[in-house]
Amino acid sequence: MSFEKEIARRRTFGIISHPDAGKTTLTEKLLLFGGAINEAGAVKSNKIKKGATSDFMEIERQRGISVSTSVLAFNYKEKKINILDTPGHKDFAEDTFRTLTAVDSVIVVVDVAKGVEEQTEKLVAVCRMRNIPMIVFINKLDREGKDAFDLMDEVEQKLGLQVTPLSFPIGMGYDFQGIYNIWEKNINLFEGDSRKNIEETIAFSDLQNPELEKIIGEKPANKLREEIELISEVYPEFDREQYLSGKLQPVFFGSALNNFGVRELLDCFIEIAPTPQPKASDTRLVDSNEKKFSGFVFKIHANMDPKHRDRLAFVKIVSGTFERNKPYLHVRQGKNMKFSSPNAFFAEKKEIVDISYPGDIVGLHDTGNFKIGDTLTEGEAMNFKGIPSFSPEHFRYINNADPLKAKQLEKGVDQLMDEGVAQLFTIEMNGRKVIGTVGALQYEVIQYRLEHEYGAKCTYENFPAYKACWVLPDDPKNEEFKEFKRVKQKFMAHDKHNQLVFLADSEFSIQMTQQKYPSVKLYFTSDYH
Ligand code: GDP
Q: Are the C-beta atoms of 43 and 33 separated by less than 8 Å?
């Protein structure tokens, strides 16, 4: 197959949702369609079980799963589909944010009864910032839930989206009869008693057709006609360009558990979802069709076996082909590297591959050369943009608890930060280290891993910060900037890229800073360049 055809058949996306909305179940059904797995329960949930904070087996279990489900690839109707796993647990949100830099589109799963939940709001906000095309899947239609129109209103308001339904439920919960597929103009019936999905669909190009009454009954038929009419009046017609530019989000309804409405979603997805997209670097926009290889690291995974410190760096291929044993430039280190056993992913297995294409993910064995965000090219000195750090929500000093193991601690902290487990800030005034995390769970993960993988012990101490604000360094002669740094010196730090950060202790302090020192520019992600 030609290079262009290989690109055109690839769809790389992520599924995002609040925990329990049905992401794992949907992933599994999608893989079943691809024939990539043949039993239910094959995809492991990456969820953290309740009470996991003190259960370190759980942390290890979770890490194991997050390797095996990092990338799930399968073929369906000639398309190569790569699903990138996104942890739903809020303590791992940063991992998900980073993964979103490697997807070309996303599917958002919403629980019909619970509606839009907190984690979904946060993740969708990041997708909106990047104009990532999104499809919404409203799940668990076999249960009683909110009214479909109310739910779409909620999605628009809470998520700031403009939706248009491409399928619509006929009844819900006990009365759920099936789905009218607006996109394909057919009806798929949900078999009430057996609750089994018959795969056949009934074509209905015209809903006025009296056959409709015979199939779903008179009342539901009239209701459906009214609803579809209302939809055509209220919602914009689907427009692929609008969807691709992140301005319009199609909605599907179904029940992942019952494998209902999933085929409709998948069939539409492969038609409309974007092929591997161009990506901006610090020097130019790189197109997937370019023949020369380029890619970037969006995730690093430590080996589960502490005796083997090698890690797996996940690289998204942006352009060209990635070939085994061919030298590529590690731009940050300015050196050429060859990879003798790059891993590709298929369903839940990984295997060594000779060649991979744009949109694909390769897993590279790494002994500590890579950091998240690193760029690999065929020689061009450029760096891909777009893996900003967001402000952590928790801040603690890290102290060495075993003076004989200072080196081990430093190395361990360094490597865990490269993996993106948390963010490290060094206080300018005294050189003390502060670890910032999205969730409190990370502190226990770090402590545990430092001890078991690096033989180092640490303790924490509270640091009274509320938010990290990146500061654009100004002319050191600027009096206002000088005063700001002097007054806030206890809170001035550097991040791992040596960028200046103000660790503000409250929202009030941020506002006061902005008022008192208007020439000092504060940014809430590290990506202000
Ligand atoms: P995740 O946390 O988003 O990955 O959610 P899971 O896929 O693990 O699903 C959470 C729970 O919801 C599980 O008990 C599923 O069996 C259940 N579930 C998923 N889809 C459906 C559905 O369509 N209907 C019903 N009734 N339950 C579902």
A: no
476-515, pLDDT tens digit by residue?
778 889 899 999 999 999 998 889 999 999 999 999 999 9
As given in the structure block, the two tokens for residue 189 are 């019936």
CB 138 within 8 A of CB 147: no
In ligand 1, which atom is closest to the CA atom of 143?
26
| Orientation of helix 441-454 relative to helix 56-68, angle to 10° | 90
Question: In the predicted model, what is the mean pLDDT of residues 152-170?
Answer: 96
pLDDT at residue number 65? 61
Q: Write the pLDDT tens digit of every residue in 65-99.
A: 665 668 889 999 999 999 998 877 777 777 788 88
User: Could you tell me where the beta strands, DSSP code E, fall in 338-487?
Assistant: 343-346, 349-352, 355-356, 361-366, 375-377, 394-400, 423-427, 433-437, 458-462, 467-471
Cβ neighbours around 191 below 10 Å, total: 13
The tens digit of pLDDT for each residue in 202-248 reads 777 788 888 888 888 889 999 999 999 999 999 999 999 999 999 99
Residue that wins the pLDDT comparison between 451 and 194: 451
The reported pTM is 0.86
Kindly state the DSSP code that residue 260 receives in the 8-state scheme.
B
SS3 of the chain: helix, strand, coil, percent, to 5:
30, 30, 40
Rg for the chain, CA atoms, rounded: 25
Order of strands across the sheet that contains 311-319? 335-337, 328-330, 375-377, 294-302, 311-319, 361-366, 343-346, 349-352
Token pair, residue 402, equals 């075993």
- State ipTM: 0.99
The residues, any chain, with a CB within 8 Å of residue 508's CB and separated by 6 or more, are none
Task: Pick the residue whose CA is nearest to atom 21 on ligand 1.
Answer: 257
- Report which listed range, 50-59, 172-181, 212-221, 424-433, is most confident: 424-433
Q: CA nearest 183: which of 245, 123, 269?
A: 269
DSSP 184: T
Bridge partners of 74, per DSSP, are: 81
Atom 26 (ligand 1): residue with closest C-alpha? 140
State in Å: Cα 35 to ligand 1 middle: 21
**Closest to 174 measured CA to CA, from 198, 193, 188:** 193
Torsion of CA 400, 404, 406, 407, to 10 degrees: -160
Helix (H, G, I), strand (E, B) or coil at 307: coil
pLDDT value, residue 346: 79
* Ligand 1, pocket residues at CB < 6 Å: 17, 19-25, 45, 47, 88, 139-140, 142-143, 255-258
Distance 374 CA to ligand 1 centre (A): 36
